[in-house]
Design goal:
243 residues; mainly beta; 9-stranded antiparallel beta sheet; 4% helix
Length: 243
């Protein structure tokens, strides 16, 4: 789903809300309520390179052909998706505490470009993730069937994908080594959205940015990991919450 289509997608849902004030299932009046979410995720790395990143070579195992000098090392944004549920604790009429665990499928991509273009490679970091965000939601006054909000919080991410398929100790060809991320890490999050009230439920489109609190790279001694000093993960997430 491209973000360019988001305004049209939202307009389809917003139109029925403009006819009169809806009940919204009474979710704002309960102390604790539940829901579910669907997410589109765009992920990329922010790469901090070592001072000698251009000329960090592999060969502690003496196999394969050493690559030449690196010309560029960068990350491209890649799409993913997630599904999860919502536990919302009402604090007062203008704030909530939210726990929104999600199962996310999100791959990341690193590109290695060498002076000799024939040696160029890309490395995909596969991820099946359990994300555990805890956030504080600050809400505006309700206007008919609309309410804007902003939120911020922290998120713990656990990578539950199999390590057997990316175990570098089993790889004999240096050109086939994997880039692996840490099994668990924290991120900071901030976002904005708005609540749309229908007769029996509330829907909330939301856009959120997250940035890992530290290095997420699992450091290993091979040609793809050695040039990197630190990897930080950045996510842009578009979510639809139904409560």
């Amino acid at each position: 789903m491209k973000l360019a289509y988001v305004p049209l997608f939202l307009l389809i849902f917003i139109s029925p809300c403009a006819l009169g004030q809806n009940w919204g299932g009474g979710v704002d009046d309960t102390d604790i309520h539940f829901g579910f979410t669907f997410q589109y995720i765009s992920s990329e790395y922010k790469i901090s390179k070592k001072s000698d990143w251009r000329s960090v070579y592999e060969d502690n195992i003496g196999q394969g052909v050493q690559p030449g000098e690196l010309r560029a090392l960068y990350s491209e944004s890649t799409p993913g998706f997630g599904i999860g549920f919502v536990v919302n604790k009402r604090v007062n009429s203008h704030s909530d505490l939210r726990f929104t665990p999600v199962l996310a499928f999100s791959d990341k991509l690193l590109r290695y470009q060498y002076v000799n273009a024939d040696q160029n490679q890309e490395k995909k970091v596969n991820g099946t993730l359990v994300e555990l965000p805890l956030s504080f939601k600050l809400k505006s006054d309700r206007r008919t069937n609309f309410r804007a909000y902003m939120l911020g919080g922290v998120k713990f991410t656990a990578d539950i994908s199999s390590r057997k398929k990316t175990n570098n100790s089993l790889v004999t060809d240096p050109a086939e080594k994997f880039i692996n991320s840490k099994r668990g890490y924290f991120s900071y999050e901030t976002g904005v959205g708005f609540d749309l009230y229908f007769e029996y439920f509330k829907m909330s489109p939301e856009i959120k940015l997250s940035y890992s609190a530290g290095d997420v790279l699992q450091h290993e001694n091979h040609r793809f990991a050695s040039p990197i000093d630190k990897l930080n993960l950045r996510n842009l997430t578009f979510s639809l919450f139904f409560e």
